[in-house]
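Need a sequence for this fold. Nothing fancy.
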């Protein structure tokens, strides 16, 4: 049976590293938990190690945070849909917004629930996902700041989430300038300039973060120690908080090439034939997970001495060559994970999740 390990010490090591760096730069931050897909056991690990602000894109996951510790500040990190605003206001203390009508609905619901709801207005800075265009921001804010039971606590942005646009000091300075202009024009304080996600962390580590930027929303770097500028592990952080273990359910020496007439497989692919491999064989193992759980392109061979040949809905086939490690049926094969691979595995109800 396949299972996923979360290593508590590695996660804590990364958490403490980031906590120290943010404190040194006078930046507040929240942990993005969406990769955990609402796994209560893993969310509790975050809270136990000191996460007092947790961000997620699923309201049901924020509800679990509140069940574990109502004192944790919860942040809903995508524009809310009209039909989930009631639950969003109930379980999220803060939300990211870019639509005027949505904010009006939130205000009405906050009045109904007798709650003060905080919002971060998202600003478009070039990646073309969510965000108010800069030249509309003053007018937008003018229509928002006096709505009842709402408090605008920040301006924010997302970069590298859709078109791969990277953050820069210039883009973040512009965001800080918008904050200053709004504060002067409306005589209102906006506490946060929420400059971004894990992709912005290298700017901070290299002392290139504009002074006005004072809030981050961090997921990938916490769980993978990733420097997303240079696609490497940040020195002092651990890349393997998660490891996936899969069981060999068949081990046979088989030809390297299929035989018979070839047509599309269930994924719409036709096998390519390398005629130089005719007559050759290797040891092939079948693993007990498949495309229903994860796309193999997001898996990294933890043990190194094999290649992934393909996958069907419930099985992955790997090539072990001459099987130098003498793997057999029942043995475990380890994988490290890319971010989207971990997200898929954590979303699969068929994979056991463990804490080590």
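Here you go.
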């Amino acid at each position: 049976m396949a299972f996923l390990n979360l290593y508590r010490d590695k996660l804590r090591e990364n958490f403490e590293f980031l906590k120290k760096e943010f404190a040194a730069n006078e930046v507040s931050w929240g942990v993005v938990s969406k990769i955990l897909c609402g796994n209560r056991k893993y969310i509790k690990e975050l809270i136990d190690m000191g996460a007092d602000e947790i961000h997620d894109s699923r309201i049901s996951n924020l509800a679990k945070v509140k069940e574990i510790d109502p004192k944790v500040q919860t942040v809903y990190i995508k524009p809310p849909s009209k039909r989930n605003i009631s639950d969003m206001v109930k379980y999220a203390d803060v939300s990211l917004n870019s639509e005027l009508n949505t904010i009006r609905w939130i205000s009405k619901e906050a009045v109904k629930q007798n709650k003060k709801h905080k919002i971060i207005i998202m600003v478009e800075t070039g990646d073309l996902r969510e965000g108010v265009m800069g030249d509309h921001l003053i007018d937008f804010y003018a229509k928002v700041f006096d709505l009842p039971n709402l408090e605008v606590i920040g301006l924010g942005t997302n970069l590298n989430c859709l078109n791969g646009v990277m953050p820069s000091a210039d883009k973040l300075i512009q965001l800080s300038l918008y904050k200053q202009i709004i504060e002067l024009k409306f005589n209102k304080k906006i506490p946060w300039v929420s400059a971004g996600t894990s992709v912005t962390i290298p700017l901070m580590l290299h002392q290139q973060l504009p002074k006005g930027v004072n809030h981050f929303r961090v997921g990938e770097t916490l769980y993978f120690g990733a420097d997303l500028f240079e696609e490497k592990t940040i020195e002092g952080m651990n890349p393997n908080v998660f490891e996936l273990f899969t069981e060999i359910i068949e081990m046979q020496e088989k030809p390297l090439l299929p035989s018979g007439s070839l047509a599309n497989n269930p994924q719409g692919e036709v096998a390519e034939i390398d005629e130089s491999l005719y007559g050759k064989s290797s040891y092939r193992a079948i693993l007990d997970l498949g495309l229903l759980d994860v796309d193999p392109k997001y898996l990294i061979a933890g043990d190194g001495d094999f290649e992934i040949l393909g996958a069907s809905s419930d099985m992955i086939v790997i090539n072990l060559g001459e099987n130098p490690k003498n793997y057999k049926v029942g043995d475990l094969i380890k994988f490290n994970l890319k971010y989207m691979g971990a997200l898929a595995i954590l979303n699969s109800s068929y994979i056991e999740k463990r804490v080590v």
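For context: Residues 7-232 form a domain with the TIM Barrel fold (CATH 3.20.20.10).
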